[in-house]
Amino acid sequence: MVCPNALNEVLDLLALHADAKVLAGGQSLVPMMNLRLVQPELLIDLNRVRGLSDISFADGELRIGAMVRQKALFGHPLVERHSPLIAAAMPHIGHVQTRNRGTIGGSIAHADPAAELPLVVAALNGTLVVQSKRGVRKISADSFFVDGLTTTLESDELLTEIRLPSAPVGISVAFREFARRHGDFAIASACVQLSDRELVAALGGVGGRPHICRDLSEAFSRGCPGSDRLSTLIAHEVGLLQPQSDLQASAEYRRHLACLALTKCLQQVMS
Amino acid sequence: MVLNCCVNGQAVWSDVEPRLLLSDFLRHTLRLTGTHVGCEMGACGACTVIVDGDAVRSCLIFAAQVDGADIRTVESLDSNGSMSLVQELFHRHHALQCGYCTSGFLMTITAALERGALPQSDEATREFLSGNICRCTGYQSIVDAVLELIR
Lengths: 271, 151
Description:
- The complex is a heterodimer.
- Chain A contains 12 helices and 13 strands.
- Chain A is globular and about 60 Å long.
- Chain A is 36% helix and 24% strand.
- In chain A, the strands form 4 sheets. Chain A has a 5-stranded antiparallel β-sheet with strand order 3-4-9-5-6. A 4-stranded antiparallel β-sheet of chain A has the order 10-11-12-13, with helices on both faces.
- The longest helix of chain A has 20 residues, at 251-270.
- Chain A is an alpha+beta fold.
- In chain A, a hairpin with a 6-residue loop joins strand 12 and strand 13 (211-212).
- Chain B folds into 2 domains: 2-75, Roll (Ubiquitin-like (UB roll)), CATH 3.10.20.30; 85-150, [2Fe-2S]-binding domain (DNA polymerase, domain 1), CATH 1.10.150.120.
- Chain B has helices at residues 22-29, 85-93, 102-115, 122-128, 140-150; strands spanning 2-7, 10-15, 48-51, 54-57, 70-72.
- The longest helix of chain B has 14 residues, at 102-115.
- The mean pLDDT of chain B is 97.
- The A-B interface holds A 1, 3, 26-27, 30-31, 34-35, 43, 45, 47, 71, 91, 94-98, 100-101, 181-183 and B 1, 18-19, 21, 40-43, 45, 48, 54-57, 59-62, 64-65, 67, 108, 112, 126-128, 130-132.
């Protein structure tokens, strides 16, 4: 394990060691190491790297450093003003002990299909700023998440910042999830943001990557659907999902919960 | 790797393997066995300690990462043989049976008490405690202890 202080040192190390893993909050990586599921050649600890923990607002975007801890997002005035959907998701993310260490960048780069932050960032189609010795790349969330624990991040690249478009005024947001225990990863989850211009919605835990409800948004762009039509649209989106069956839940049960979570979110933002 | 930190008010210097977890450092190197290891994968909360004022899972931090930090374990709670307020309330409400999870609960609650971040309702208390698993009490007595602490 090495504990560099500067971003340049991290990028040098990543360029040299293709098998290196970066350690952010460690709330997903260290359990996997404890279970010997991951045995990295080299661990690059980011916790002493300067300049990755700022939250700011510029050019109409909320900018969150990759090493911002989840506890710092909780109740942050800029997050509440510019990204109320993140604020709505926060109480569902982990437990007090994991939020004290866990980071936004770690959660997004890890890309657990049931995690809340990747879901919200995908729903809002945020921009992921990644850096390497080769330069800076800005990747839209839509092309960042590939599959479970898989992103388009290259082995020499580091996620350094998450940028989210500022939410329009007068929006309403909702986040719902079903988990075995409060704070655990979701069996199924949904998030919705409704403004007078558009609706964005996404489903989590029900496939390798967050499912963006494009057809639902498309329908809303032509006017607010009635309740019968809305049920049909929700059923259509849920029908597109290809969730996995595992020890926690069958694929069918996941679809059922996704339908319920999305319905409740829509009811909340439309009321 | 060189590790200089403060554990329960005492300066500690050690040369640690990079792979050594903080929980193992506390238990095996310092012999502070009050910190318990349950699942060793961040789910149960038994290993919770306070690092620089925050309750964290010591099985998910490497010892080398706490260089320069202030660490407190359950052994720091009593003073001259008398229990802390949180310990007193656990005793009064019978908020433990086998005791395996207790040190984790105590450290989680103590950190929140010191930060002024205790929950304010029954439901919020249950959410707040959701990062610690207890297999004996059914939680009611633990919730009762926290609710009295809030009052």
